[in-house]
Amino acid sequence: MTQLVGSLFVEGVDSALAQARRLDPTDLVEFRIDGARSLELSPLVLGRPRPAIVTARSRDEGGRFLGTEDERFDLLARALDLGVEWVDVEWAAWPGARARLDPSRTIVSRHDFEGVPEASVVERFFRDARSSGAAMGKFVVTPRSLRELAAFLSAFRRARVPGVAFGMGRYGLLSRVLAARAGSAWIYGAVDAAETAPGQPSVAELRRPYRVSSVTASTRLFGILGSPLGHSLSPWIHNEQFAEGNVDAVYVPFETNDLDDFIAAAESLDLRGFSVTIPHKEAVVARLDHVSDEARALGAVNTIVRVDERWHGENYDAAGFVDALAAGPELRGASAIVLGAGGAARAVAFALRRNGARVVVGSRTDARSQSVAGDLGVDSCAWDALPLESADLVVNATPLGMWPHVESSPIDVARLRPGAWVVDTIYNPVETRLLRDARARGLHVKSGLEMFVGQAARQFRLFTGCEPDVARMRDTCRQRLVKRNVVLVGLRGSGKSTVGRIVAESRGVAFVDLDDEIANDAGMTIAQIFAREGEPAFRDREYHALERVLAHDGQVIAAGGGVVLDERNRRLLVDRATCVYLEAAADVLHRRLAPTFESDPQRPSLTGLPLQGEIEKLERDRGGLYRSVAQFVVTAGDGTPEEVAARVAIAVGAVEG
User: Fold this and answer.
1) Chain centre to alpha carbon of residue 444
2) What is the reported pTM?
3) Residues 557-615: pLDDT tens digits?
4) Whole-angstrom distance, CA of residue 433 vs CA of residue 625
5) Could you say which DSSP state residue 92 is in?
6) How far is CA 115 from CA 61, 92, 112, 144, 514, in A?
7) Residues 138, 281, 483, 496: which is the catalytic one?
8) Residue 281 among the catalytic residues
9) C-alpha–C-alpha distance, residues 161 and 375, integer Å
């Protein structure tokens, strides 16, 4: 059974032990001591709350140790003398270290940051490591494709000796789950948001939803194919259903644009089934052995399963839509309008026509809506002439209203008749602007979450033959979509603190200024921290303050302008908060900051440039980072602080609805 290792950089003994105590008691902890300037090993080793590995990684293999090899080996030997269970030393250094370390408690490791060696090299390493007397070998590679990852894990299995094997980089998470299935003795994750290797997921993520410690060679493999997949809810709902139903299976993301690469890896990994999303729903059809009549009619699949070693494709989008309307309007004879002409619109129009509705398809591109209508035998209409006033049912199958542009709505619901139904295919946010407006007018509404859960439930039945807990699926999705802390990010002058206080007051919750938290902890102003300790020390303080604040729910938090510069902070913001980017134009920021820019000792220039130049440089350096963590982008350059706060409240309310 694979053991889960929480890996952490040791900066100080107290903080390292505090982090280690947050791990589940069944896990190991790896203390990376190569970055510590001075360290007393005795309290660290003797105070460890569970079995531990001590590593002082050399710079040649991605570490930060600056001393001599003799000094490094002395540290590891001292850790063993103090009773630590394991030490880790590089395979290349093993000949020099072997005489000073207990081989039976030493892991010999090898790292390849450029790619994956030939299979024969991988097999030989694990066998040689074992025959050298070391406890086991650890090989960490950097796969550049799914095929490379699959080949590496196959070579590890063929070695047939105890060992640790996984990948770094873009396939970091996937490689760890698959490595557990391949028999890796240990799998490493970051204790908190700070990774100790490129692409390293957190221990919490490996434990839930992926349950790495329970994955074995007999665990059936399922997944989702597409790109991007960063915000996919599918791994959460399927893995939780596997756990609830005691199904020995795991569901993982295969994020790639290369369909050939995926198909080759799927065969090697014995993938039993997978969901399909953009951009592969149409292209993958030609690779299948059999396609259902419905999928063929729609020209796309969203579910593929292995039956008698043949790939069988289904499309559950239409069926999921009908399932969502089970307690909704009567479809037979209903007048239905479908907004959009993409894959979702095609599936919805197909389902409505099959269930007896009179369907009109409309999009902003007449040729596309005419094409969909012609293929499905329904009517089309120009966007500006849609007969909304007479519709019994309107379905939004466009991306209008999807985050981060949650203030968008495809139609004016005032045109709809009383008693009409409004359905959205968007599920993030759970309640879109369209649905909120419709609900406010007393109309009937259905969220896209229902359609998503409906098709996911059908996928689960096909994958496992078991009946899913649909209510639990729905709850899981809502829990992932709603994060109880709201964090405002943006450049200095965008109004984060002012707007944040108004939002907090309107919600009846606490307001936190992160810079104030940092200053209070340090007993210094932010300017003094920068001057006395430097920016790296400030960013470390900022990370620990943000982590501590986000441990509590129900707050509105204004973050400093540079919070997104630290990868650890970005991971915290994405994982633990609803993040709103207050975006303001350069001229607005200039007008707000000019009166105090040169005279405020607490907020000195960050770049040494004149104000206009500083604003432009910070926007170039940080704008993309703000967008990468933000669930919503709210314009903060026009209107009063109260008006901007109202926009934030609308955005956040859309998610929490």
Assistant:
1) 33
2) 0.77
3) 999 999 999 988 998 888 788 899 999 888 888 887 776 655 455 555 566 677 788 88
4) 26
5) G
6) 14, 18, 6, 6, 40
7) 281
8) yes
9) 57
